[in-house]
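2 proteins. here.
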Amino acid sequence: MPELFVEILSEEIPARMQRRAAGDFKKLVTDHLVEAGLTYEGAYASATPRRLILSVQGLPARSAEKREERKGPRVGAPEKALEGFLRASGLASIDAAEIVNDPKKGDFYVARTVVPGREAINVCGEAIVEAVRRFPWPVTMRWGAGSAEAGAMRWVRPMTSIVATFGAENEDPEIVPVAIGDVPVGDTTVGHRFHAPEPIRVRRLDDYAPALTRAKVIVDMDRRRDQILEAAKNAVFALGLELVDDPGLLEEVAGLVEWPVVLVGHFDEATLSLPEEVIRLTIRVNQKYFVTRDASTGQLSNAFVLAANIEASDGGAAIIAGNERVVRARLADARFFWEQDLKNSLEEHLATLGNVTFHDRLGSQLDRVDRIEALAQLIAPRVGADVSLAGRAARLAKADLATGMVGEFPELQGYMGRRYAAVQGEDDAIAAAIEGHYAPVGPSDAVPEGKVAIAVALADKLDQLMFLWAAGEKPTGSGDAFGLRRAALGIIRIILEHKLRLPLRDAAGEGLIRDAWGVHGGSELMESLRPQEPMDASPEERLARAQNFGEGGDQRAFLVDRFVVQQRDAGVPAEVVRAILPTLTSIDLVDITNRIAALTAFLASDDGTTLMAGYRRATNILRAEEKKDGAAVKGAVDAAALVEAEEKALAAAVSEAAGAVSAAVSGENYEAAMAALARLRAPVDAFFEAVHVNADDPALRANRLALLAALRDVTRQVADFSQISG
């Protein structure tokens, strides 16, 4: 069966865009083909620094004809309606339509037409043009003489040619009719820009890939990547070294070269006295080179690996020498920043942050440091950290933002602070906290270790969340410029992974959120952030708004919402978390996760499934009664008014369960609480088998409803089961 082959050659495709571009190109073209009635057996897409490549195999020569049916107006409809129907259906006259009878609506017109199949090569041409015009490049440009015209061709970089062929394996393929500006379209391409610039005729993918390999171009992205990795490992192994694993850099380098030639260079060993990450970033970020380690010691070595895009006649000696000069200069700059930074203490660097604005409503970075320091000292004893160490670490945590090294490499914030702290003799816990307090940055990053680091990390994230939110920087559906979702998730993960009993709110209304406000509760800053009251607000509304603001109610609710999302991502249905929340007097995340674990296990058991069925039956009866009367069913069960043995047994079981569940919940023994609920399974089943709740006797009926309400109240000590579907 025929194959469509396409190569779009341009001056450059940026490395970071290539893999996605290949996938986008394949999807755009194949979607168009399928919509036009052309199925296919398989598709392959790839990219190089200059080419976008697509092969679609197993296409038919023509699309199949389609039979279409369009229902029209009723017989006798106005002339305008008939004219519109004829235009939409493509019929020449109403006589060409069929009349169909509908027993309910009468006779109406139906247009039945046959859309003939089309030559696949023409559909392929349309698919290519449409894909090019709709291509989702993040950035595009115009070029050439027609670039100023309306609707001018846009592409990521100037397009130089297109190969587009269509034909069966045993046939000489035809050139697909494609018209995209003045870009030449045919069946010839070129190889490597320097090694093989001569024209190469292309038939299909099977001959294209080998021909390009002979012309010093490796078409497949994964093959280029794997070849670079293998060659680099082999090259450094011979020197007694190991390549430092860097998948992101490997992917990027594979997108920079069409014919990778791996070379090894060296820099001055004395430079290894710089912090390791400084060397790595200098070489990686600026030059896209890999660093190496000594295989025996694990220490960073002075050898680096680069992938050139040319086979040099001197074996790469000149390329290596040139890159060594650049690396030496880059590392000399890094050494300069390191030495200059060490001329001042972290306290001296910190002082300059008073001139750096953090937020126009929240003051300078130094003002923020003051808040974090006070909050870290407040949190420290609650996580078992030394108060003075936590305060000192928080004081110095942002100092490296003022250093030359972090100014050059913002990615090194925290890392450099730890190194400078170690040089000036700070306690190890302080140095570790300076680096660790930013963690976790992403959902898969490790949380900070060490009690001092935990205290400072929580203080940093709480300050970020509480005060930026109050300053009006709340996250929206489309953005979160200040990373408040990330800060909230960081707080949640630190609490959960270290099992910290730090309630966001306890039974008395105190908690971690109030702590953050309390540090500066009476300050001018707090007053400046207080939202304006509506002119028509009642005194009660004003009091509620003031309390909610002063207690951080909005931020606490946001944290709880983020917790629900975090649990959902961990595999816990949101409805299970929502079922727990209404039962709480304290918002303690560790306690909530313990409740969730017990509830999840209970719901998965036979006892849980059966009791849930009985619970739903009970609540449906209660809901109907409460809807009818407009009030909740209340009142104590009158034991003397119970008639049937089954209702007496249920009343006794509910009374016993109420005490057992209450005691278990108070002791945070949620497995025992679930076990107490499980013992209700049999009496609930027996009750609904034998007892008619809506008895004719109003007193008997009211007593039985009160019994069901008591059953509901017992379960609500553990969870609001009405939140759980199924």
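next one coming up
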Amino acid sequence: MSNLKYYDPQTLKKGNETYTSQVIIYGATSAGITSAIQLKRYGIECMIVEPTNHVGGMTTSGLSATDLGSEYAVGGISKEFYTKISEHYQKQNEYNFEPKVAKEIYKQWIDEYNIPIYTKQPLKKVIKENNKIKEFTTENGNTFIADVFIDTTYEGDLFAKAGISYKVGREANSQYKEIYNGIQFKDQHHKFEEWIDPYVIEGDPESGLLPGIQDLSMEEIGYPGLADDTIQAYNFRITLTKNKENKIRFPKPKNYNSERYLLLLRYILTGNWDAMNLNTPLPNEKWDLNNYGAFSTDHIGMNYEWPDADNETREKIYQDHIEYNQGILYFLANDSRVPKDIRDEVSEFGLPKDEYEDSEHWPPQLYIREARRMISDYVMTDRNCLKVDTVHDSIGLASYHMDSHNCRRFVIDGRVMNEGDVEIPVSPFPISYRSIRPKKEEATNLLVPVCLSSSHIAYGSIRMEPIFMILGQSAAVAAKIALEEQIPVQDLDYDVLREELIKQNQVVEWDESIEDDPLARMKETFGKE
């Protein structure tokens, strides 16, 4: 196992302290930080409580090539963040950055606004009275009491322990009258472009399946549009460099097993080499590596337990993903069975010495692409993304395409296949306020800007860091109004909320005259939907 930990009970500082604030934000993600900044600008007392030791979520942990649909859909503090990025590099409209620069911008804001952050505080229990959250306790023995709570974790841990309704997995298309949800086989990307034999001994099913392939019956595989409990794959967004003075060779994981990559090797030997194609250039000779192709950094099918798992189980999954991601890089750079030109190409890269200096130069945050999703009075669906349905209580815009990574890898007719990938471009669309607050009968003083009420496929468009920043700020604005008026978060007058959001420079509706429409760009490029 790596020395890097998601959860280590031995390092939890025992407290038995009680902390009280007007607003408590659970989760030091980008949404948590923008929530706290907005509240502090109002002069509202708040604090951030984080279960791990990491601050900044994916923005400070390798997601450095920003997933952006239209820059004109980004407003408020989210826009301020990217403006600071541009100023740092003295370049207009810069959305690609080094993780250490994002970390420094967040640190400056945290210091400027004197935002208290309590790390290594894994949640233990939430106490509600009359549908109102009163407090929560952590494994350290600490108690946190507030008037309003904001859950900004990637997993929705706070709202789950508060008894709020939620969904894990993919809904059937029939549930919300969608067309891109559920099991998906059509027009897939990141698929095997060749017929690849899945068996240890090619052509011999009795020899067993290669590692990473699920043994599913046709009944278990299902049919397009059907619901299931699987979730899209996780990985690490790995920061790379070719700078010899700043480069560390890819480490060999403690439990390295080259057998895990035999399917990749078999694919490479058919002439398909694309596993590292999505390495996006960053400033100062660095790259952001993401999953690409049929077999890459996505650890398909190995994350299903994560959303509802206890911390010990998450630690095992976390270590498994570290070993898998470090292992694939080590394998490609060193295994003699890999063609030499590929080994040489991969070996040009390494981990940068000047990034993640407190986590072995490895990004500390696992990329939780989706986990729990709250079920509220309004569920965002692909009908919203496609503008079949429009909401009239917008708190911000999403503009990235509907994006689901693969959820499963199995065998059909002796051929290995991936399933679950969806990439559908959209025009910027509004996100409903009702999707970030629970049903009134479940909690009246909670806001959920990250694991909001959304179907699997609509979440694929919404789940981007700039949008989480936007929604975190909007949640803080709503919290301010609820506090001032002493009302449940469900009883806000939307006209009041909208006016305040606009005052805080949020973009709540799309200007159709803007030419930077991602769907229009796609149509112009490809001449089709």
